[in-house]
Amino acid sequence: MTPAAVTTEQLGKRYGQRTGRTKWALRDCTLEVPEGRICGLVGANGAGKTTLLKLLVGLARPTTGSVQVLGRAPGDDPAFLRDVGYLAQEVPLYRRWTAADHLAMGAHLNPVWDAAPTRQRLLDLDIPLDQRVGTMSGGQRAQVALALALGKRPRVLLLDEPVAALDPLARREFLATLGAAVAEAEGSLTVVLSSHLVSDLERICDHLVVLAESRTLLADDLDDVVASHRLLTAPRRDPGPIERQHTVLRTEQTPRQTSLWVRLDGPLHDPTWHSDPLSLEDIVLAYLGQRSRTTAELSTVIGGVR
Amino acid sequence: MTWLLWRQHRLQAAVSWGLMAAFAVLLWITGVHMADLYRSCRASAACSGGTLFESYKPLENLVTLTIAAPLVLGMLWAAPLIAREFETGTHTLAWTQSVSRRHWLTAKLVVLIGGTLLWSGALAALVTWWSGTLNTMNGNRFDGARFDTQGVLPVAYSLFAVSLAVAAGAVLRRMLPALGVTIFGFVAVRLLVDSYVRPLFQHPLTILSRLDQDPASANGSWVISRTLTLNGHTVTGPIKVADQCAATGTRSQMDTCMSDAGYRLATKYQPGNRYWPFQFIESGIFVGLAALLIAVCVIVVRRRDA
Q1: Is B96 in CB contact (< 8 Å) with chain A?
Q2: CA dist., res. A167 & res. B277, Å (int)
Q3: How far apart are CA A85 and CA B107, in angstroms?
């Protein structure tokens, strides 16, 4: 197995210690992203996606647990920072600067800088290099920011909801640029990309992490995720036997029929259940719909994934 | 970092030094003219000096206004330096290039403090030189706003103002609150030191003088208070004119009469030769405060999460 680019162990972050109103933004997050993957990070708003990404790039320090990126603890260290690209949710850029100014900044502040390819990437997208980014469209700004993050040739690229505010066309273009960069890197670039739009992730990702209520619910390769989750239906009956063998994410009982959203933790022996594949969106929603579960049950789910 | 700082602040630098150059030209031309006027006036026996610089009154007021220059530096240079990055989120952009946060902050502070030293030093030198003629004519540079706008003190005030503003920006992370703290804090500390601390640097001298004579202390000294005494006791309440003096006609006749009756003027003052010690003591206080605030700024930026 390829070494992990990102590893977290029981990672937790609590805010508000000084004000006294403490709140866990992320708790018990244990996951592993193998090198070269494009990892989608899904979760409802407030699930801890932004916090996790900030912990990965060293902009925030963990309260509990540990985090390793490329075998190092993220920190305020040029040797670490040069290998990691980061794009914050609000796509911060100096609004009065031109795109060319931003590229010049990248060239001045990074030891490795792909000057010509980065320029060309923006020119190919018809982005005027001498226009102030403040007057650009959201899609163009996102492309400038992505170019800046990619220009330093990072080994890990962390993107926080980069497409959330973009229209469908700009979203497609952004993901296409990202896909091309990953293909060019030939397996040496690992991407962690957060989004609440499962359809976008499905298009580009090959690894999935589901966060809800500040906890990790699922972390696995996308193919395995899709293969191991099934919708089981049968004439109304007791779901007990299935619940004992597998992980039932959601149960729906009608007077005539029982439907179970299930992660199979082994082969399905009972042929009287009708088994259908689930779309990625259904799977994610089934996980995010588990809010009412108790902590103990959630831990079981996490344990099962590991 | 040099490039980044130049790109970010070149407009501010150009405007500040442009204004300084214009002010220097204005003061140079008028300063030379005033010195000539005073010299030729002194050469003639009838020089009273009283109305000699009547037409320079507006310029004198303008020069007095440089008392606010430290605050302006704090508000326009220092408050936005870090607070604006936080407000627009661009600190995450700068902190995820291959430059450590420590390096970024050090560079910013060095440029800020260096710029402040140069700019406020130039201003103080100009004002001190220009005021030379007026100081000689008035025989005083210790009193009121002259002390605050000349010598080394304006530089110390400026260091304090920019340190307060940059620390407020780092702690509050918002421009407007940082500006508020800067204005309120600077004015409050200045008034406090001016009114209650400065008179205590060294024990003030007191001299008793007849009402019809100028006190010998007047020359070049800073007069803190004047009180009327009778036989060594301070006169409080309404002053009762001695009976024998009530009939006298002019003010000077009355002063002589009162003095003969035992009334004396007690002048509490700091002599003129304490000018430089006082400048350096007060400068020391403000530079010390500035150092404390810079330390706060460094600790906050380095310790707190982005």
Answers
A1: yes
A2: 67
A3: 22
Question: What is the CATH topology of the domain spanning A224-305?
Answer: Alpha-Beta Plaits (3.30.70)
Angle between helices B101-138 and B275-303 (to 10 degrees): 160
Confidence band for A288, pLDDT divided at 50, 70 and 90: confident
- Looking at residue A79, its amino acid is A
The residue of B6, B86, B97 whose CB has the most chain A CBs within 10 angstroms, and thus the best one to mutate to test that interface, is: B97
B221 and B90 inside one domain: no
CB contact under 8 A, B96 and A92: no
B268/B281 same-domain check: no
B48 found inside a domain: no
* Structural contact between residues A11 and A62, judged by C-beta atoms closer than 8 angstroms: yes
Q: What's the rounded Cα separation, in Å, for the pair B238 and B123?
A: 46
Tell me: do B162 and B234 sit in the same domain.
no
Q: Are B177 and B257 in contact (CB under 8 A)?
A: no
* A111/B97 Cβ within 8 A: no
Q: Which positions 220-239 of B are in contact with A (Cβ < 8 Å)?
A: none
pLDDT tens digits in sequence order for chain B, 306 residues long:
899 999 999 999 999 999 999 999 999 999 999 999 998 888 887 776 667 888 899 999 999 999 999 999 999 999 999 999 999 999 999 999 999 999 999 999 999 999 999 999 999 999 999 999 998 888 888 887 899 999 999 999 999 999 999 999 999 999 999 999 999 999 999 999 999 999 889 999 988 888 877 776 567 888 888 888 887 788 877 766 666 777 767 778 888 888 888 888 888 889 989 999 999 999 999 999 999 999 999 999 998 888
Closest CA to A176 of A187, A184, A165, A186: A184
Q: CA-nearest residue of chain A to B11? A: A96
For residue B65 the two structure tokens come to: 């206004």
Residues of B in contact with A82 (CB under 8 A): 98
CATH class of the A4-212 domain in this structure: alpha beta
Please indicate, yes or no, whether residues B262 and B289 belong to a single structural domain of this protein.
no
Among B95, B98, B102, beta carbon nearest to A82: B98
The domain total for chain B is 2
List the A156-160 sheet strands across, edge first. Answer: A84-87, A156-160, A190-195, A38-42, A207-212, A215-221
Compare all CA atoms of chain B with the CA of A95 and give the residue at the minimum distance: B88
How does pLDDT run across B200-218, given as a tens digit for each residue? 899 999 888 888 777 765 6
B293 token code pair: 């605030």
* C-beta atoms of B305 and A61 within 8 A: yes
**Containing structural domain, residue B289:** 59-202+274-303
Query: What DSSP designation does B194 have?
Result: I
